[in-house]
Specification:
mainly alpha; 12 helices; single chain; 87% helix; two-stranded antiparallel ribbon; 2 domains
Length: 360
């Protein structure tokens, strides 16, 4: 009876916590971003803290200052350099996309149909192009309306500026006290479950580390390789295509396949020759070689990561339920569930239910 009561109390607490997170999502989001940055930076802080120059120890405070400065520098570069580049690439995409549609419907699609031996009776390229352009006009207009609303909204702008100040401050304090917070949580656990809970937490950290500190670094590195390579080829949307392909490589081969298709189409539309198409294929081929021979072995290794399907579902489900906060929490929650499911599976394989022999 007492066990049933505890189970119901646990269920109520979990449900209530989820509802509270849903209600407080706008407030929690900057703290979740700060926690993610602190989680990424804590291993480097620990390494610097243990380092020494001759007989002088670096110490926690100096290590935190160095890592915090590095994180802040990266964030400033994102705001000052990368975001304007991304905005410019999106603007260029909006301008070029109608021309891409005309070229695809009038040239590329009939050629592909001819190569496949398909007849296109009754197909009107102009009508098909007009339909796609109408859809694209609606999508781009809606997107620009949202951006305009956000940029003009005084409350939204004030909230954005407040988060811009709050995130670095909270990140600094979390970095400084990360180990203390972790030990404090561990000390609060009941002694009869502390050992198992610490083991589960260590395995969850291993999964998250393998993905976030490993796979995400691979994704960014691939994005940079594709961006630089496509820029040298002369592709106008090199940054958008390259970084997009790199980020999509969270699913093996998905990023490279989509990147090759889009970049090849952009090269054919822009240059109308085979040479640039071959160069695009060479860029993605070199990227795949770098990933298989260097990036994945060095950055991820043999550590256990999250299955790509799990990652996709977790991110989509988290975004659907909690918005941007859900996207941030998706990977930690998926990692925790992944470890818990593995332990439940192990206990099931050792239980009497599984091992009871059947009647002969």
């Amino acid at each position: 009876m007492a066990s049933d009561s505890r189970n119901w109390l646990t269920l109520v607490l979990v449900a209530g916590g989820g509802w509270l997170v849903y209600l407080l999502a706008p407030v929690i989001t900057p703290f979740a971003v700060s926690a993610m940055l602190a989680y990424l930076g804590d291993p480097l802080v620990d390494r610097l803290e243990r380092a020494s120059v001759k007989n002088w120890k670096v110490g926690r405070s100096l290590a935190v200052t160095v890592v915090f400065t590095l994180i802040l520098t990266v964030l400033v570069l994102l705001l000052v350099i990368i975001i304007p580049m991304l905005v410019e690439q999106i603007r260029l995409l909006v301008e070029r996309f109608p021309q891409w549609i005309d070229w695809f419907s009038a040239t590329a699609l009939p050629w592909l149909a001819g190569q496949a031996g398909l007849e296109m009776k009754g197909f009107d390229p102009a009508q098909f192009s007009g339909m796609l352009q109408e859809y694209w006009k609606e999508i781009s207009t809606a997107a620009f309306n949202v951006i305009d609303l956000i940029s003009r909204g005084g409350l939204a702008l004030a909230s954005w500026l407040a988060n811009l100040i709050l995130i670095p401050v909270v990140t600094f304090y979390l970095l400084r006290d990360w180990d203390l917070l972790r030990r404090g949580i561990q000390d609060l656990l009941p002694r009869n479950i502390e050992g198992n809970t610490s083991q589960l937490a260590a395995e969850i950290d291993e999964v998250l580390s393998a993905f976030i500190r490993g796979q995400l670094m691979v994704m960014v590195a691939l994005g940079v390789i594709y961006f630089v390579g496509l820029s040298l080829v002369g592709i106008e949307l090199a940054f958008l295509i390259g970084m997009g392909a790199g980020l999509l490589s969270v699913v093996p081969y998905l990023g490279s396949i989509i990147g090759v298709i889009v970049a090849a189409g952009a090269a054919m539309f822009q240059f109308h020759d085979v040479f640039h198409l071959v160069m695009v294929l060479l860029v993605f081929g070199l990227g795949q070689m770098a990933e298989g021979m260097f990036l994945t072995p060095k950055l991820v290794g043999d550590r256990i990561g999250l299955h790509p399907v799990t990652v996709i579902f977790a991110v989509l489900a988290g975004g659907q339920i909690f918005g941007f906060l859900g996207i941030l929490l998706a990977l930690p929650v998926a990692a925790a569930l992944n470890v818990l499911v593995r332990h439940v599976h192990q206990r099931y394989r050792q239980s009497e239910i599984y091992n009871t022999p059947g009647e002969s």
